[in-house]
């Protein structure tokens, strides 16, 4: 009698594999299509002449391009690797380094530009004319260029430390210390700092808008009282002359 060996697949593992396959074959194309449409529409809007003179629109324009690069190097590359069953990042060292460098660079640039847009709106609400000078298109272009330069310098370590891991078929840094640094960097600079800065700057902008609205309201009331008083004085003078 032949001994037939059978292997039992854990139902949880099977469900996870099914979910992963569903995300790869359905979620990625959907995410890429929606993201590309959004980025292209944003870029088309921000390329209008009126928008090119708006400092805040310039920051969002730069952020849209960064998101476009992130979708291309991140989602599109992963999608092609899934459908062709061939991921060059697992064996091509040059592609491995460049792909993850571009993903990190574009993500940093996108978040930085959104933070700058929040700062721009906050300074625009300032009473100080010197602070409002920051909210000019020429200044915004220079700030975007400097920001892109710094965001391009920060992930340079990826070009040095990342290599294809043939055994696990992934592109990862060779050193464990670099992996730890990336985890801290992801939570600190990737999520924590941008979210905190955007929340603080947006809250301050709303607070300043309310303060400006109250100040303008008081000025209007004061102007109305002055006008009424002026009319009353004129009537009194005419009455006395009569």
Automatic annotation (TrEMBL):
The keyword Transmembrane applies. GO terms for molecular function: G protein-coupled receptor activity. GO terms for cellular component: plasma membrane. It is a multi-pass membrane protein. Residues 38-242 form the G-protein coupled receptors family 1 profile domain. It is found in: Membrane. It comes from Rotaria sordida. The chain crosses the membrane at residues 25-47, 59-80, 139-160, 186-209. Keywords: G-protein coupled receptor, Membrane, Receptor, Transducer, Transmembrane, Transmembrane helix. The keyword Cell inner membrane does not apply. This is G-protein coupled receptors family 1 profile domain-containing protein. InterPro entries: GPCR_Rhodpsn_7TM (IPR017452).
